Amino acid sequence: MNETMRLEQLFDAFATLADTLVAGYDVLDLLQLLVENCRDLLDVDSAGILLENAAGRLEVVASTSEANTLVEMMQLDADAGPCLECFHTRAIVSVPDIDVDPSRWPDFCATALAQGIHSVYAIPLRLRETTIGTLNLMRNDRGELNQRDIRAAQALADVATIGILQERTVRDASTLRDQLQHALSSRIIIEQAKGVVAETANVSIEAAFALIREHARSNQTALRLVAQQLVTRDLRF
Amino acid sequence: MSNDPFQVASDALTHSAGQISDLARPFVRFLPVSGASISTFGSFLGAETISATDARAGRVDELQFDLGEGPCWDAVLNRRPVLEPDLSAGISASWPAFLEAIQHEGIGAIFAFPLLFGPLEIGAVDLYSVAPVSLSVEQQRQTLALSAIVSRILLRNAITNDDTPGETTTFSRRLIHQATGMVLAQLGTTPEDAHLIIRARAYAENRSMLDVAQDIIERRIRFTALPESGEGTS
After folding, report:
1. Is the pLDDT of residue B186 over 50?
2. Candidate from A57, A59, A199 with C-beta closest to B182
3. Which CATH code for domain B5-160?
4. Predicted local distance difference test score (pLDDT) of residue A167
5. Residue B165 in this model has a pLDDT that exceeds 60
6. What fold is seen in the domain B170-217?
7. Would the CB atoms of B170 and A200 count as touching at under 8 Å?
8. What average pLDDT does the segment B120-131 reach?
């Protein structure tokens, strides 16, 4: 991809993100868009987002691949890994080569390496004193992510975070925690919908999510809504 | 509160709050029968009479366990009600030992409704009347509806009294939700019931829910929708 095209796409990504925020959105869809933007525009192979749940623990809420192996890896990261450190320090944590010190977070490192992931970056989702979760970028190559991509990722994450926090002030009734918990609870029905489609279309769980995502996108419907209809069998693939 | 006897019975069951020994009583409130008993048996729970409205109802239940034959066995085996409105008129079923054993009990009619939950066999409801009596199609339908409520209560009760290995990680929950989706599609049921079926399977096999969920996702376990119990033969 040449530089001009890349800048244009990045510009589009910000514009889409901004449009979404202006038009009203579902937090989950916003975060899904964010991870897909990172994968498509930055020099990374996969991306995911973890939010703090009501119990104060980080939980995977969106990822570019719904392969259970990737999600499991990120969840291990949430218990002991770069993204937990990022969440606590509220600063970017960069691990350019997991192989250098795999004993630092043994479970996370072993799972990442088993999937061919060699470098990871955790970027905080924060606005002033509030941190709501982390954006995780994963690469199959070793080495530092270039500074420009890191800045772009942080900027995308900031826009999404501002959007989420902004909506809270618009809708005073729900606290930030309620809103984030709602996004995490939506995961339950999305996981169920993945199972429904895996069964009825006879595809893998990962492929099932791709079908659901595609349907939501082409019908401009929230993922959660599509998932809901699949689970009640009002919608069938 | 409604005055409709069926609705009253249904409400009583729904709000029974785990009083397992009271589960048989609502059936005699709206059906023209003298007594009712509920027993668990089959592939899933141990054989036991768990509720009976009177001593005779309890004996009818116990006899069937002792003899290994009778209406409750047939109801579960065939997944549909057994209806014998007049025992003196000769019956279609073949339970020579059972009929001989109850001949001094003074029973005119006997009915059995299966307790099923998806593919699981939970047990049966036995109903008897001193005088010959028929159940209308509507009464059969209502009895099946109440039986479904009883099945759920019994299943939940069995599972929640048990300490199945805990599932605490967010990742394992995710897999269980995916498996729940697959099971609900396989059986055409609700997420709540599909989840309960996975729990029941884990309970029955003394495994963790995560284990069972993984088998479902990898398609090593599959649940098949069985025919719903319909109207009985009489």
Report:
1. yes
2. A199
3. 3.30.450.40
4. 62
5. no
6. Arc Repressor Mutant, subunit A (1.10.10)
7. no
8. 93
